[in-house]
Amino acid sequence: MSRTEVVVYATPRLLAAAAAARLVTRLVDLQAAKGSASLVLTGGGTGIAMLEQLRDSPARDAIDWRRLDVYWGDERFVPGGDPERNEKQAREALLDHVPVDPDRVHAMAPSDGEFGADPDAAAAAYAAVLAAHARPEDHGDVPTFDILLLGLGGEGHTASIFPESPSVYETERSVVAVRHSPKPPPTRISLTLPAIRQAAEVWLAASGEGKADAVALALAGAGEVQLPVAGARGQRRTLWLLDRAAAGKLQRVYQPPLA
Ligand SMILES: O=C(O)[C@H](O)[C@@H](O)[C@H](O)[C@H](O)COP(=O)(O)O
Fold this sequence. Notes:
The two termini are 33 Å apart. By secondary structure, this protein is an alpha/beta fold. The chain has one domain: Rossmann fold (3-Layer(aba) Sandwich). Helices cover 27% and strands 17% of the residues. Helix 1 (12-34) crosses helix 2. The protein binds 6-phosphogluconic acid (6PG). 6-phosphogluconic acid binds next to helix 2 and strand 4. GO terms for molecular function: 6-phosphogluconolactonase activity. InterPro entries: 6-phosphogluconolactonase_DevB (IPR005900), 6PGL (IPR039104), Glc/Gal-6P_isomerase (IPR006148), NagB/RpiA_transferase-like (IPR037171). This is 6-phosphogluconolactonase.
């Protein structure tokens, strides 16, 4: 049975720092329990800020970076050196500063990579990577990710799944190409909601009043077609990490710690 938790922090900086601290603790516990851990990264300012805080955390190297499997929830389908790439931003924010095992970092292909400018081929290839790393106990072609990080947009997108877009209706494939994304750049690759729901824990991080409506609607039970982030649930845990502004329209009072 999955549980939903909401934690509110006074400011975006506290949110990013506390989320990083949570990641250290949770990843260390997972590695102690089963020898390795898997983490799915997200793009966007909130997600990258968490990685920067993790990079600067004094407890950072309690994580055994060589026993961490890193994936992405979505990627902008642009050339590998493009500053818009989630992978490039994640490497600059964290991965280039810690001794991860390169063979355990699974990036989605860029538009100047082996699949050229074909996002469908790149999406299919990433689905094959996921299938290759799924184990029998995962009961399908997507690994049971330990922690899957997500941001969300003010209109309710998450990863690169946008309201009433073809990707939100996908029930078979784990990874799809996204075209005409309302959020630039226009072409992307994204895990689908069924793949996201394969994760043991989904952590949703949001800051700013622009996200408050989407947060409140999702927690009030909105449908995933109109509000894809409402469909982003972990098998065991869905953790909302919010700043006070993003939590501003929640009916229940979640006591933000004093600033
Ligand atoms: O590649 C992307 O753009 C992200 O995956 C996207 O889903 C992002 O997480 C949200 O749009 C929130 O972005 P901000 O944190 O910058 O608001």
